Amino acid sequence: FNLQLWNNYFHLAVAFITQDSLQLENFSHAKYNKIQNKYGDMRRLIGFAIRDMWYKLGQNKICFIPGMVGPILEMTLIPEVELRKATIPIFFDMMLCEYQRTGEFKKFENEIILKLDHEVEGGRGDEHYMQLFESILTECAKQHPGISSLVESFVSLVKGLLERLLDYRAVMSDESKDNRMSCTVNLL
């Protein structure tokens, strides 16, 4: 098992699907349709490949926690529904891997909270993502009763943080200093 090779693969694939020139939602409707008809959404194809390769790592997955949490988060925040549905379950698998090794998933949790702040501040994330994140991880947790209460607490924590980060991002363009201050206090 060559850790560096796999690490390079995942980072390159995530860098590919997150590059600006592939963010189809930023294009005009006509350009979007033209690209979709000619090439399809390459992000989805590569995202599915990342997901498939992740699950083929077997016991070596633990080597990528917490290092791949940020890149996977960046990928799941792309506003493409099928890509999100396919890749958000990787988070549960990461939690499960760390839990089976240590009895908790603190490294994963700390990393996702740190990276989520950075990504939302950078303009990524939305209400739909928050809802999908919650429903997918909650559904995954139901299949593993031993870890389900920890996952539910984690999901609740991340959902609350994401709500506050989205509110904060929304009011940063607001003229009212009181609104901005209130959101800042809530976030803290």
Structure notes:
- The chain is mainly α.
- The protein has one domain (3-174).
- Helix content is 74%, strand content 0%.
- The protein is built from ten helices and no strands.
- It has helices spanning 3-17, 29-39, 42-55, 69-76, 81-87, 89-102, 106-121, 127-142, 145-171, 177-187.
- α4 crosses α7 (106-121), α8 (127-142) packs antiparallel against α9 (145-171) and α9 packs antiparallel against α10.
- The radius of gyration is 18 Å and the shape is globular.
- The termini are far apart.
- The mean pLDDT is 90.
H and E order: HHHHHHHHHH
The proportion of strand residues reads under 5%
Query: What spatial form do the alpha-carbon principal axes imply?
Result: globular
Unreliably modeled segments: none
Question: How many helical elements?
Answer: 10
Give the SSE layout.
Layout: H1 3-17, H2 29-39, H3 42-55, H4 69-76, H5 81-87, H6 89-102, H7 106-121, H8 127-142, H9 145-171, H10 177-187
Helix pairs in contact: 1-3, 1-4, 3-5, 4-7, 7-9, 8-9, 9-10
